[in-house]
Design brief:
With 257 residues, the protein is α/β, with parallel strands linked by helices. It has a single domain (4-248), classed as Rossmann fold. It contains 7 helices and 8 strands; from the N terminus they run αβαββαββαβαβαβα. It has a 5-stranded mixed β-barrel. α4 links the parallel β5 and β6. α1 packs across α3 (72-82) and α3 (72-82) packs parallel to α6. The longest helix is centred in the C-terminal third of the chain and has 29 residues, at 220-248. The two termini are 28 Å apart.
Length: 257
């Protein structure tokens, strides 16, 4: 364990239960175990890593899914570890709070950028470096959404490490001033760490709550309803987009920095 690559390969297996060489080249990332289970059921494949910090599964089409947990620290960890397998692309399928009146439960947001309010990304680049997705990856996701005639938004996501803020009017007024469309805990981190590790990345976020008003704050009951109505569709979009990119063989990366 005397170099970075050896550490990454060892830790990727230790964290996710999947040997690095068994991963596909197209990665779906999520915070939720039921996404991994639905993927496993769809392709009749094994879920690895059960009982550990993360779980994973891979299908025959070269697409893998990883539940890396919640928060920016975990997001950075999985992107750092994935660098050892040099995936062609990684798509984060997360949930977010809708901050605008036009963002309703069940809407999808395809972020154009993310505000780095979480702090974790500061270990990778100065604050002046924007957290952005890979355009061509998002182009494929957008195409799937349009073909399915699904309602979706584009805009900026605010990423924070702070979990319980819905009562804080000062912070909520700040969110209004920065004009963010949604709020989550991982997107900016994934965009920045993907950039740092040379991984093309994107995010398709499902609006699961509207936390700017008391009646819109997520509860156990409301989250179950969102899951029942929209999660299967969410994962199907991610699988179709990443499978299509792999099948068409289009290069996502054009330049080396």
């Amino acid at each position: 364990m005397d170099n970075k690559e050896k550490i990454k390969r060892n830790w990727l297996k230790r964290y996710t239960g999947t040997v690095p060489d068994d991963y596909g080249k197209w990665i779906l990332l999520t915070n939720f175990q039921n996404y991994v289970e639905k993927f496993s059921e769809k392709f009749n494949v094994q879920v690895n890593g059960i009982g550990g910090p993360m779980t994973s599964a891979t299908n025959e089409n070269g697409v893998s899914i990883i539940n890396f947990g919640i928060g920016s620290a975990n997001a950075a960890t999985i992107m750092d570890l994935l660098a050892c397998i040099k995936p062609k692309g990684a798509l984060f399928m997360g949930k977010c709070g809708g901050l605008k009146k036009t963002t309703e439960l069940g809407h999808f947001i395809l972020p154009t950028a993310a505000i780095r309010g979480e702090g974790t990304s500061d270990d990778y680049f100065p604050k002046e470096v924007p957290a952005m997705p890979s355009f061509k990856l998002h182009k494929h996701v957008s195409q799937v959404l349009v073909e399915k005639e699904l309602e979706y938004r584009t805009g900026v996501i605010y990423t924070t490490n702070r979990r319980v803020w819905e009562h804080d009017e000062v912070f909520k007024n700040y969110l209004k001033r920065v004009r963010a469309m949604g709020i989550d805990m991982e997107t900016a981190t994934i965009f920045i760490t993907g950039f740092a590790n040379g991984i093309d990345r994107g995010a398709l976020l499902l609006v699961s709550d509207t936390p700017m008003v008391p009646e819109g704050v997520k509860t156990e009951e409301s989250d179950k309803e969102v899951t029942r109505k929209y999660v299967r569709l969410h994962i199907e979009i991610g699988i179709e987009a990443m499978t299509r990119i792999g099948g068409e063989g289009e290069k996502i990366k054009h330049f080396t920095y």
